[in-house]
Amino acid sequence: MNFCNNCGHSPLEYKQPEGDNRVRYICSNCEVVHYQNPKIVCGCLVFYEGKILLGKRGIEPRMGKWNFPAGFMENHETVKEGAAREVWEEVRAKVEIERLHTVYNILHVNQVYFLFLAKLTEPIFGAAEETSDVRLFAMDEIPWDDLAFHSNVFALEQYIKDPSYKGVHHGDNRAYMNDIK
After folding, report:
1. Which of 3, 28, 60, 139 yields a CA-CA distance of 20 to 30 A from 129?
2. Distance of CA 2 to the CA centre of its chain
3. Residues 6+ apart with CB under 8 A from 116
4. What tens digit of pLDDT does each residue of 30-75 get?
5. In a 10 Å sphere around its CB, with 0-12 CB exposed, 13-18 middle and 19+ buried, how is residue 81 labelled?
6. Burial per residue of 60-80, b for 16 or more beta-carbon CB atoms within 10 angstroms, e otherwise
7. First CA to last CA across the chain, in angstroms?
8. φ and ψ of 144, to 5 deg
């Protein structure tokens, strides 16, 4: 942070506030502590007649790779509402969300993914502004080497291991941190 978004003062101090357990940006003028917290990403593993719906990313990062329809949650919406909205925005599909499937932490960019299992309400979908292609894949057709993110791989592997599992899978990208450039 270069300046205080409360009073406009610059520069800020980067230190541990009294009684806190980590360093934060603090304004030496108005003494506001600027907390920085993870961003929430929400989306869906969308199924139709035993196939999964994936969109090919038309934007960076990972342009040209296949991905679940997902994106940043907006203010004034629930995680479920955000997930359904992202499906519409990315692959022009309407879904019925069944349940939360995965919570996945992306540590190096401070994001938490909430991925729901959902089914298409009808077999209508298509590429949108940020998507170059959309397809239904049978489980034996999943383009594993062309999936955009480790979160996709983790969520799909958990689903394939036990599609009837009713709990929530928890994962993070610690094992992949060395791969991140």
Report:
1. 139
2. 27
3. 42, 43, 44, 45, 80, 83, 97, 98, 99, 100, 101
4. 999 999 999 999 999 999 999 999 999 999 999 999 999 999 999 9
5. middle
6. eeeeebbbbbbbebeeeeebb
7. 23
8. -50, -45
Q: Looking at the structure, do residues 65 and 152 belong to the same domain, yes or no?
A: yes
**Which of 128, 121, 100, 113 shows the shortest CA–CA distance to 48?**
121
Name the token pair of 70.
Answer: 């997902």
- The boundaries of the domain holding residue 136 are 39-179
As a whole number, mean pLDDT of residues 12-20 equals 95
Domain CATH code at residue 16: 2.20.70.10
Question: Residue 127 belongs to a domain with what CATH number?
Answer: 3.90.79.10
Please give the tally of structural domains in the chain. Answer: 2
**Residue 33 contacts residue 15 (beta carbons within 8 Å):** no
Residues 97 and 22 reside in one and the same domain: no
Co-location of 76 and 11 in the same domain:
no
